[in-house]
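The pair is quoted verbatim below.
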Amino acid sequence: MKVIVEADGGARGNPGPAGYGAVVRDASNGSVLAERAEALGVTTNNVAEYSGLIAGLTAARELGAAQVEVRMDSKLVIEQMTGRWQIKHPGLRLLAAQAAELQSQFDQVRYEWIPRERNKHADALANMAMDGAQPAAATWEPRADVATRLILVRHGETSMTAEKRYSGRGDVPLSEAGRAQAQAVAARVAALAPVAAVSSPLARCAQTAALIGVPVSTEADLIECDFGDWEGMTFAEVRERYGPELNAWLGSTAVAPPGGESFKQVSARVRRALDHLRKNYPGQTVAVVSHVSPIKLLLRDALAASDALLHRLFLDPAGLSIVDYYPDGGVAVRTVNDVAHLE
């Protein structure tokens, strides 16, 4: 999906009371998909403009966009983000780095300077934020009764989980301990009243999902990352035999294990699965039973975090996370890796 991000920011006094506004439009017809606005307290115009850009890119990512056209009337932000102007101010360098990190998560981002007359929508949102009259769509948590709630469940333990081996596409069943974990998490999930469960096609997820007691469907895009030649190996074994390849993989989501799949590729299909879930279960609660990599990628996007999260967040077998997705593009992460039911 291609979208247009229009963003603006301002400060009354520079520095002074500041705020930003951002609009995300469908590039095919110009319809508004999301709005963002927020008051920033006392700061400068430039900080507010960068904040608008970051909010717009974040909203575009939450919508699952692959291509983004950014339009702003800030010559400074446009020229700096395209690399034509240097960023001398330390505070702006940090904001530009945050925007660049978001930018790297799309297939393509293009920047265009536009005159203020063509940026009236974002400008109006920024002024509303500065006036303290934010639109409902810009609040951090819209009405709970319209959210699609996903209960993200990692499958129970397998023999390969216990041995800390890569078991991406290997169809390994739950171990005895894993079945006990699956029963515990299923009871916990059932208490949250999901209308359905959507599972990876692999046995360890299907076995876990079946215990929840609701209709179960399969979503192929929720399958674990294909670790290629590393399947069945421990991290230490991979480090010993594939040291350079491992370092490259740890350093970039675009790098795949030999014969396998990159996290960037996994992310594309996981976002596609999320689109399907939001369209098929609007305003409902759904259990999503999957694996470490797809769940981490969903949480990375929901938290607007960097790729560093993928190698720093630990997800236990049968742990659950909860994310609410709102029709206006808002996202609220409520729980991450909750394992209270296993204690």
